[in-house]
Amino acid sequence: MLTLAPDIEVLARFGRALADPIRCRILLVLREAPAYPSDLADTLGVSRTRLSNHLACLRDCGLVVTVPDGRRTRYELADPRLGQALEHLLAAVVAVESDRTCADAATGECC
């Protein structure tokens, strides 16, 4: 019998990461190029503390990694295929129906 548990866990982890708009924005920015936290905070218009919490979540999910760069730390996607996956996912969602919303932005709960 085929067990899907590991695959389901990986997809659930990816889904948790994408469940927050700020984390989605971080992933989309990092899809373009690695970035430093201060630059990400400025680009996204969020506090560094808030950004740090989201980056920790993405690190814990295994989607981003840190790269020491002198006295600074740079963030990048853990695997370049994640950027490609995001592009494919965006294209698929837009192709299906771009005028739908499925979650309440305030609660994150699906309709």
TrEMBL record:
This is HTH-type transcriptional regulator CmtR. It comes from Streptomyces liangshanensis. The lineage of its organism: Bacteria, Bacillati, Actinomycetota, Actinomycetes, Kitasatosporales. Residues 4-97 form the HTH arsR-type domain. PANTHER family: HTH-TYPE TRANSCRIPTIONAL REGULATOR CMTR (PTHR39168:SF2), TRANSCRIPTIONAL REGULATOR-RELATED (PTHR39168). It comes from the Bacteria. Homodimer. GO terms for molecular function: cadmium ion sensor activity; DNA binding; DNA-binding transcription factor activity; lead ion binding. Keywords: Cadmium, DNA-binding, Metal-binding, Transcription, Transcription regulation. Metal-responsive transcriptional repressor for the cmt operon. Binding of cadmium or lead causes the repressor to dissociate from the DNA. CDD domains: HTH_ARSR. InterPro entries: ArsR-like_HTH (IPR011991), HTH_ArsR_DNA-bd_dom (IPR001845), HTH_Metal-responsive_Reg (IPR052543), WH-like_DNA-bd_sf (IPR036388), WH_DNA-bd_sf (IPR036390). GO terms for biological process: response to cadmium ion; response to lead ion.
